[in-house]
Amino acid sequence: MEKTTEKSMVNVRLKDGSIKEVEKGCSVIELAKQISEGLARVATVALVDGKVQDLRTKLEHDCEVSILTFDSEEGKKAYWHTTSHIMAQAIKRLYDNDSNIKLTIGPAIDDGFYYDFDVDRNISSDDFEKIENEMKKIIKEDLPIERFTLPRDEAIKFMEERKEPYKVELIKELPDGEEISFYRQGEFVDLCAGPHLMSTGKVKAVKLLSASGAYWRGDEHNKMLQRVYGISFPKTSQLEEYINMIEEAKKRDHRKLGKELELFFFDETAPGMAYWLPNGLTIMNTLISFWRKEHKKRGYMEFSGPQINSSELWKTSGHWDHYKEDMYVLTDADGNEQAIKPMNCPNAIKVYQTKLRSYKDLPLRFNDVDVIHRNEKSGQLNGLFRVREFRQDDSHNFITETQIKDEIKSILELAKVFYGVFGLEFVPALSTRPDDFMGDIELWNKAEEELKSILNEMYGEGNYPIKEKDGAFYGPKLDIQMKDCLGRQWQMGTIQLDFQLPLRFNLSYIDMDGNKKTPILVHRAIYGSFERFIGLLTEHFAGAFPIWISPVQVRILPISEKHLEYAEKIKDVMEEAGLRVEVDSRNEKTGYKIREAQLQKIPYMLVVGDKEQEEQTVAVRTREQGDTGAMKVNDFIDMVKEKIEKYC
HSE (CB half, 13 Å, CA atoms) of 244? Predict the structure, then answer.
């Protein structure tokens, strides 16, 4: 009698902690179907032992699996990455015969995807409808997406035969032994690490958004390519909601409002470096004053350091090896190599080293708002959001190991204050060890566990994102991610736990037992940079800033020239009380002046005429409510000061 062989089984731990036994070699999509047909329909990718994988991945051993949908960050990235391939396939189908299209790269980004093409024709918005229609055909064809790998030589030959020189270049630069994977959907094949959806039919609603030029690899010395941006969603309603958000975002664009409200401007003589106009600088200085006030309450000490440091400092810190390409490097009059600082941490360390420190001194918190410079590529610049010169709301906090938990929690509580005054909410994301990390891996593991423990306590396990391999080279970090009024997510400040730099600089303090110990360094910025945060606030409030940071808080509108003297008198009284006031003395109709003030988002407009002058009052208008009636001047001042004094 023939003996029956038992099937080999593996145990899979699911997200809820339960264990499911499946056959060895079972794919993730088959596992999803066993759990729920509904889950299988909406699944995009999975986390298998913490790594993002295709649903086609085979489960060969006991493992932990979390099946992800479009609602997750990883799920969106896979969805959009697949859609970028569908777009590239559509463009190849439409134009390859007469336009000699070469594929380069097509990644998912924070809001959708793009693909860069080397093509002998201009692709513009006029082509979008035609491309979208072809994409919809590919989606309707529901082409299975298949992954395969090739040895290095075969992979190069394969792409050479397909006349894809950029792909050949990328393959040749891959490390020896690296798995070289491709994804096929119908006649279209692309070099890609993945992951991707199971078929083109999983994508539902698509929209192309814009086209622009882009240098190959972001280097202006390379060939100019054509980049096409797009977005996709599982439901048409989600796409419609996104398009409405985009239209609203255009109205709120900080670059547009910055010009209209006379906040700042950029000039070709200083790319990526803003000229701050009086209105914008008022916002900047008001934010910095609030920042200083709140830090002083918490025992922070402000310092200022040099703008230029010797390359030796940056070599000791490790920035020279890990960050030099983003630094402005120069030679001084004596022939010594220098660099304009891209961050403040080495200067804070030099301040720490000015005298012997004791455990009684710690935590020791050095904060600063020095200007720093980063040599960003021109193609990456984006208004105030990505600049080459900015003021970072920095602090470097030196602590003992036992103070880690309390210090990180206090920083997160301070972040709640800084964001809460604007009605903004955030969640910290844990960024873990990158491949090019510096230092002892055991210290890294220890630091990551400390941060996880803090987040679990403050937010609950699983209630915060984890960004694998996105830490700084010297330590893991918490990145502050927040959403604005349009639901857009922004990467703002950061809290970085650093065990490495104190060792590299031989920092020490005298512990209570009289022995020398090495402090731990916490790098932190809450706003991230004042430039970026002002750009965000401009869009979040559509230029209608809260009164305490408004460049002009009150505009007085005299009805005629005979009321000008009274208007100026009121202005003097209000300025003496600390308000930011101006008088519109132009010989224009009052209605016109009101409309102008509304367009310039002035919080309060005070109309003064015969009646107001006689009764020593002002007719109050607000930008939100319009006419609110007459008030005595002192009563108005008291009301406005009450609104701003808790911040200023």
Answer: 8
